[in-house]
Amino acid sequence: MTLALAAVATGVTTLLAIGQWAADLTQEQLAMVGASRFKGRYVPPSESAIRRTLQRSDAAALDAILEEWMADFGFGDAVAFDGKTVRGSGSDTQGPRHLVAAVVHGTTRVVAQQDVASKTHEIPVAHDLLAPLALDGKMVTADVCTPKRSWPTIS
After folding, report:
1. What's the structural domain count of the chain?
2. Can you give the pLDDT at residue 27?
3. What distance in Å separates the CA atoms of residue 49 and residue 53, rounded to the nearest whole number?
4. Which of 12, 40, 57 is the last residue of a domain?
5. Do 39 and 99 share a domain, yes or no?
6. Can you spell out the DSSP letters for 43-65?
7. Helix (H) or strand (E) holding 104
8. Which domain holds residue 130?
9. Are 15 and 50 contacting, i.e. CB atoms less than 8 angstroms apart?
């Protein structure tokens, strides 16, 4: 798990890439992320071992831990609220997952995220997602799309 989190923190975005990233680590780096030892050497886990570990993990608990850890770094001056569909997360019987997240402007730091039932339900999730964050005095932005007729006319 530590290895996968470290890889993602460096910008790696796929399970295959996490496996390749792990394979490129030095012995010292493998020791730091808790890799197993075999015949006196640290051995990186395979992509399939990484996938199985992540699939068995409690995503909500991991999110909570990571959100708390990221909050320790502060929020800067602004936080963006945005939703994204997770590519490759769907199946024959279920559509892809859609997440909304609070991201520190100018970074890739997600300080909170939440699963939503469908892409059309981002706005109701905003309050629940942002309420626990210490955002006093911060700007919060969102790329909200609504029908044109609901926007006020500006002359």
Report:
1. 2
2. 96
3. 6
4. 57
5. no
6. EPPPHHHHHHHHHHS-HHHHHHH
7. strand 98-104
8. 65-144
9. yes
